[in-house]
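Deliverable D5.2: sample structural annotation.
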Amino acid sequence: MARNADKTPKDKTGGPDDDQDSDLVLPTDAEPDADGYKPTRRQVARGDKPEGGKGKSAPAGPPPTKYQQFMEQHWEGWLSQVLLILVLGAGVIGYKMDLLRESMIGILLSGGLVASAIYVTAIPAYDLIKNPTGRRLFAALVVLWVIAAGYPTLRKGMSRKVLAETVLTEESKTVKLPIAEGQVGPYDVTVSGSLKPDAAQSSNIGYELVVTGDGGIHTELSGEFTYAVHQARVRRGSTHWTEQHNQLEHRLPRDLRGSELTISTDRVEDTLQNGLHVTIHPQSYDPNWFFVAGIFVVFAMIYVESRIGDSKTKPHLIMASATTLVFSYWYHLHATSNRMVAPTLDALILAVITGGIGGTIVGAIVRRASGRDRLKPAIDDEKSDRAGEPA
């Protein structure tokens, strides 16, 4: 009887086996390991400890200093923005007080705008490309983008070698200008002049030059200097500022060469303070090739944007490449070595209106035509798959 009593089946709801099973943690209730996966039933039954994360305590390091704590708490919130405002304010004050050179501010502004536009769009887009070959091709495209937008922009602020220079006046309208030894061309010519203080408030001064090289090959150069005084009414009266465009660059034909150039003009305006200054430089790379490369980059970004992204992730590569193309073209057309800040702001406004808005519209059309705006993000797909799995 006692032996049979020992073999009596246990109650399904109150037996000791049920108490032992209730102490086990199911995988669905367990906390995930450091790698993001939950332990299996067998691991829980064996009592395996997680290899990392909470199961393994990290070695204790030195406590953070008060400076580190302050930076961690406030850098992302407000400190970085305040420091950026202070740096920009210091730059504006230094520029207004002539403490910073025009070329330095111009290079920082123009180069920084182009670099930031490329960086903030190219890096996230690179992470969206999964194919290794595609990543390498995109990296090569970004390098071409940097060259196409960077060279026309930075060239205006770079110091250039002076091969020869002269001044044309009413008494000396024709000058034979010997070039530095070993230089035969081709050349770039910079023409500049300063207006007299007693000139009119708004003046336009034109000039015409004839440059002759070896074999009688010659070319005509023409341009116009502008000087304007602007006035604006403020609360306590009025304020005025002057705007002067007194330097122009010309690219001589490649067949005009020689160790001596003859520069002549028919007339030098008497409103110029010290005559017409002419400077000869070695010819730089033709910027038109860089603009053609910039157009190619825009079309390439149209293809790239049709291959990456989804309904939430928009690469904005078309907008950024079009913006840098317009900016570099306008800036190269109007900036000079002694006037760079105002053309930077003008080029920025034009680039935002034309390249920014136009590129955004084209990008939206490309994403809609390729179906990218209808693709669900990968994170949302993973969440829906997890929700559909049985518990």
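Annotation notes: The CA atoms of residues 165 and 273 lie 17 Å apart. Confidence is low (pLDDT under 50) at residues 1-30.
The annotation will be released with the project's public dataset once the embargo ends.
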